[in-house]
Request: fold
Amino acid sequence: MTYQQLMGLANGYAESKTLLVANELGVFTAIGTGGRSAEQLAASCGTTREGMRLLLQALAGLGLLRLKTERYWNTPLGRRFLDGASPLAITNLLWLLNHHWMDWSGMTKAIRRGSPGWAPLTKTANFQRRFALAMQERSHMLAHPTIDTFRLPRQAERFLDLGGGAGSYAIALARRYPTLQGLVVDQSVTVAKRLIRQERLADRLHVQEGDLLSIPLPTDMDVVLLSNVLHDFNERDSQRLLRRAKKALRRGGKLLIVEYFLTQDQTSPAEAAVFSLLMYGFTGTGRCYSWNEAEAWLTEAGFGRCRRHKVTGSIGTMEATKL
Ligand SMILES: C[S@@+](CC[C@H](N)C(=O)[O-])C[C@H]1O[C@@H](n2cnc3c(N)ncnc32)[C@H](O)[C@@H]1O
Reply:
């Protein structure tokens, strides 16, 4: 790493925060498809004129807005992803990243004294709703390439999505395999229920609210999906979850795990190692695991034929068959 890169990394939060603050104030959505002056935006976002003017100049400097004849316009990227009216908007995902600012602010203390764990705020219905929406927005880009790595058992009919969140992966699976029936289990299923109805899949996808570690699960499943769930749990509970998944499967059924998997020394990919630290601060119970750790637990739980696939540089899938 060069000195310039080091300084870029040290100051990266300032640029990131400029984007996240603008999202929080609703600037991109207020601009929408038209051009707006700083005064108009200050009025519609409820800010001071001076503060808004400086924010808009910073956003234009970063290439996140365009300035033409004293009016600010969204870029094509902004219209697609930052304007809340776009079907591909990631405004809730950016809200979640802004929320993680608090987790990072408490990180020094968490590392010194131990993580305080899940903040009471994360248990509220509003947090869980926005979190589920954030997960759904994140899956816009990820669900299909992820599902492309799966090889379902022949004639698969029934699947269980444990910690399915907004149901994005269940919906993508049901769309890809038109005869598949699925059950999404999560501590909060309000958003999943609405999205499944919107997608007209309520005849094939069902939801159940409950705790993954204690709720009775169905049996004889062809497929169990654990997508971005293990990093919420400690080692002991992750292994418990894998054993519960095995019990829910028929012999020959497949467990499909989607995760930020780490290499054996747990240092790369860097994005996964950094996300693992964030999970320590955010959840207090979880972290990311290495491919080898997950595979050893699967073997121990009675799975075999483990296969690893890469989805992105830091996200992968692991499939395992119940022997
Ligand atoms: C990171 S999200 C992943 C959501 C979805 N599977 C995806 O990949 O987009 C983790 C999900 O696990 C759920 N979850 C975590 N711990 C849980 C528990 N003990 N019981 C039920 N659900 C839980 C959360 O509510 C959340 O929806």
Observations:
- The beta strands are 65-68, 71-74, 158-162, 181-186, 205-209, 221-227, 249-259, 303-310, 316-322.
- The CA atoms of residues 24 and 95 lie 7 Å apart.
